[in-house]
Specification:
The structure is a single chain. The protein has a 6-stranded mixed beta sheet. It is built from 12 helices and 10 strands. Helices cover 40% and strands 19% of the residues. The longest helix has 18 residues. The protein is globular. Strand 7, helix 6 and strand 8 form a beta-alpha-beta unit. It is an alpha/beta fold. Helix 4 crosses helix 5. Bound molecules: adenosine-5'-triphosphate (ATP). Adenosine-5'-triphosphate binds next to helix 1. The site of adenosine-5'-triphosphate (ATP) has 10 residues, from helix 1. This is ABC transporter ATP-binding protein.
């Protein structure tokens, strides 16, 4: 069914280097959330902290009434079974074929007979479209297939929470589109809580219920997708529009006067109404940012009530075309 994760006042440092501080957010049960942020802002560190691989200095992570930051190692081992993690490169064992890689957590953490393991492995391989590739070694397949194999492996213990670390990195736009559809379909099928770290703005616009943004050692914003996508907060707008003008610089920090000058110029440009912005796209004036339609579960996927409600809302927002999709 998916469980809620409640993070409060979380702070993580390495020695003198504070990665982020006082991070508070709630990942709602069964929903899809995306975490954005410039390179090096500690998104991967955040995922590793959530799953208990890194210890924060302060704050709490509450799941099913237990604070993960206070658990002993053997208790943490139990709680980790709630999680499935898809690491950036799939983190597969190079010398094992895909079948054995995907079976690995079942052989390691359960006493299921091989016949049952076979049923589960083939079911998950089918879900991610890898049937027929059981004998392949990770080195013999494409990056996209490795990601899907990593995802199948993350699914075998029926996790309540799935963490995705840049699932789209290194994939071409078409593979990213397929992967996004797979993520949405999976969410409708298994109803777990998803957190996706990504740099891909197109995915962030289409896939999640909620979006967060880490910048300058803080969580700038976390909330429903609509709130972030229509936000006038300069950092959020700069990031979502992939612009150089704004508070985010090449080395992260920018001079305050320079930021103000750039923003004033942008505002002047936006005041003219319809000219192109720095990305070459249509100008997005405050409060009138374009809302991309949400990606819905594909045909053949039974939609639970949550996704039926999302499809109805999308049909109301985006009219006829979405209504056809919603009815499909
Ligand atoms: N085990 C560690 N020990 C010391 N510093 C670390 C450790 N892990 C990460 N860091 C530092 O934490 C910072 C954040 O790293 P992280 O990989 O989480 O960033 P990120 O936002 O995921 O970046 P990217 O988008 O480029 O993948 C970096 O400065 C990194 O060097």
């Amino acid at each position: 069914m998916g469980v809620e994760i409640c993070v409060e006042g979380l702070t993580k440092s390495f020695g003198q280097q504070v990665i982020w501080q006082d991070v508070s957010l709630t990942l709602p049960a069964g929903e899809v959330s995306v975490m954005l942020g410039p390179s090096g802002t500690g998104k991967s560190v955040f995922l590793k902290t959530l799953v208990g691989l890194l210890k924060p200095e302060r704050g709490s992570i509450t799941i099913q009434g237990r604070d993960l930051t206070r658990l002993r190692e053997h208790e943490l081992y139990e709680v980790r079974k709630l999680f499935g993690v898809l690491f950036q490169d799939g983190a597969l064992f190079g010398s094992m074929n895909l079948y054995d890689n995907i079976a690995f957590p079942l052989r390691e953490h359960t006493r299921k007979p091989e016949s049952e393991i076979r049923r589960i492995v083939l079911e998950k391989m089918d879900m991610v479209g890898l049937i027929g590739a059981e004998e392949k070694l990770p080195g013999e397949i494409s990056g996209g297939m490795r990601k899907r194999a990593g995802l199948a492996r993350a699914l075998v213990l029926d996790p309540e929470i799935i963490l995705f670390d840049e699932p789209d990195s290194g994939l071409d736009p078409v593979r990213v589109a397929y992967l996004n559809q797979l993520i949405v379909d999976l969410n409708a099928q298994i109803d777990a809580t998803f957190l996706i770290v990504t740099h891909d703005i197109a995915s962030a616009r289409q896939v999640p219920d909620n979006i967060g943004l880490l910048f300058r050692r803080e969580l700038v914003m976390f909330g429903p997708r609509e709130k972030l996508l229509t936000s006038d907060e300069p950092v959020v707008r700069q990031f979502l529009n992939g612009r150089m003008q704004g508070p985010i610089g090449m080395a992260e920090e920018k001079d305050a006067a320079q930021v103000e000058q750039e923003l004033a110029q942008l505002r002047k440009g936006e005041g003219r109404g319809t000219g192109p912005d720095a990305t070459g796209g249509p100008t997005k004036t405050p409060g009138s940012q374009v809302m991309t339609p949400r990606l819905l579960p594909g045909p053949g996927i039974t939609r639970p009530p949550r996704w039926q409600a999302i499809a109805r809302r999308e049909a109301e927002l985006h009219g006829h075309r979405s209504r056809e999709v919603a009815d499909a």
